[in-house]
Specification:
- Helix 4 packs antiparallel against helix 5, helix 5 (about 85-95) packs antiparallel against helix 9 and helix 9 packs antiparallel against helix 10.
- The chain is mainly alpha-helical.
- The longest helix has 21 residues, at about 40-60.
- The chain has helices at about 5-20, 25-35, 40-60, 65-80, 85-95, 100-105, 110-115, 120-130, 140-155, 160-175, 180-190, 195-200, 210-215, 220-235, 240-250, 255-270.
């Protein structure tokens, strides 16, 4: 799905769900719990689209009585249908944004098993667990979203990209200060960089506020320029694409890269 469609669908669903706030989270929680108890994979899969809309509303509205329990059951749904990456993703959502000590008491074994099944190292798993303990997460809700975004983006699972992006949009809707590393993650996502490339480029603990091309190490910079030029040319953002080309051609280009640049310039002029 193209990101423009993700953004449009996200804001539509957010408006719809906020407008009909009488929707009871407990009802959805009870239904999730029922179909999970039945291990009904068909019903669980059919319900996920509706659950995604509830997810957006709960995260946007920050606090409802049954939010933690809803996310806990959503984790169980994803475990049952074998989507462990999303199960771990939503356990991080629950622990980061809707901490609940009653759930946490019974959650550790499940958390560890999920992390290990995704090939996270023991040390990394412990860090994720400790950072999402209720006594350690930030008091500010927007800071908790930022913590969650940092943890989830560092997993580098392709299947999570769209889900992370939606929660990033919620953070932006709250007029929060967006960390530079997350702005760069968004930029790389928009231009189509893969998770391996993001992993090599983004290091949150080292990030000052500066343009992305000032941040990227030389060995990756030209590749990001090419991806950005290709993307912005494709979406008809020709002025910005031309600006990128000017910066790109100032790099130390190989003969092959110079020839590729001639083709890119020709496409923009068409």
């Amino acid at each position: 799905m193209r990101l423009i469609h993700v953004i449009t669908a996200f804001f539509f669903s957010l408006f719809y769900l906020t407008a009909f706030s009488q929707f009871k989270t407990k009802t959805e929680y009870d239904y999730l719990r029922l179909i999970n108890c039945q291990q009904n994979r068909t019903l669980i899969k059919d319900n996920l689209k509706n659950s995604d809309m509830v997810v957006n509303r709960l995260i946007a509205t920050e606090n409802e009585r049954y939010s933690a329990y809803f996310f806990n059951e959503l984790v169980n749904s994803y475990i049952i249908i074998g989507q462990k990456e999303l199960a771990f993703f939503y356990i991080l959502v629950q622990r980061s944004l809707f901490p609940n000590d009653s759930l946490s008491v019974f959650q550790e074994n499940n958390f560890m098993e999920l992390a290990f099944s995704l090939n996270l190292e023991k040390n990394t798993t412990k860090i994720y667990w400790d950072k999402t303990l209720s006594q350690k997460i930030p008091q500010s809700y927007t800071d908790r979203i930022i913590l969650f975004l940092e943890l989830s983006t560092e997993l580098h699972f392709k299947v999570l990209t769209e889900h992370i992006y939606k929660i990033g949009l919620i953070l932006r809707s709250k007029n929060a200060q967006i960390p530079a590393w997350y702005q760069h993650w968004e930029y790389l996502t928009i231009i189509g960089a893969n998770e391996k490339q993001k992993q090599l480029i983004i290091h949150p603990d080292k990030y000052p506020y500066q343009p992305i091309f000032n941040q990227i190490e030389v060995e990756y910079k030209k590749k990001v320029y090419r991806k950005a030029i290709k993307h912005f040319s494709k979406v008809n953002a020709k002025v910005y694409a031309k600006e990128l080309i000017i910066d790109y051609q100032a790099q130390d280009l190989s003969i092959v890269e110079k020839f590729d640049l001639i083709i890119k310039k020709a496409k923009i002029r068409l």
